[in-house]
Amino acid sequence: MNTESERDLERTREAIGALRTILDPEVGVNLVDLGLIDEVHVEGERAVVRLFLTTPACPAAGAIIQGIERSLRTAVAGVTEVAVTLVLDRPWTAERITPEGRLQLGW
């Protein structure tokens, strides 16, 4: 039988999968492969996401955050609260892009 923490770990994996379906509207690469997700975890009914933006004044920030909230509530069973915080203590850099993201960008 799974413990509560094992269930939360599985649901965190589901959340990461759901975040892979959300494309950055300006670049067309999903948030995970673009390296915009700093942290994600699910505990009980709450999903927590720390999000980088490619630029501090990203015009798509609101749409990206709404997409995250909608996706996690829909894709991860039992999630009713989604907390998205922006990573402001360090900038996003292209080094965060995964190999898959680099392929999608043609790099």
Please tag this protein with its features.
3 helices; 18% strand; 107 residues; GMP Synthetase, Chain A, domain 3; alpha+beta; three-stranded mixed sheet
Can you describe this structure in just a few lines?
This protein has 107 residues and is α+β, with helices and mostly antiparallel strands. It has 3 helices and 3 strands. The chain has one domain: Fe-S cluster assembly (FSCA) (GMP Synthetase, Chain A, domain 3), CATH 3.30.300.
Going across the major beta sheet, what is the strand order? 1-2-3
What are the segments in which pLDDT stays under 50 over at least 5 consecutive residues? Answer: none
Report the average pLDDT across residues.
93
CATH superfamily (homologous) name: Fe-S cluster assembly (FSCA)
Series of secondary-structure elements, N-terminal to C-terminal: HEEHEH
For the secondary structure, the number of strands is: 3
Assign the CATH architecture: 2-Layer Sandwich
Q: Which shape, going by the Cα principal axes?
A: globular
* Tally of individual domains: 1
- For the termini, the CA-CA separation is 45 Å
Structural Rg:
14 Å
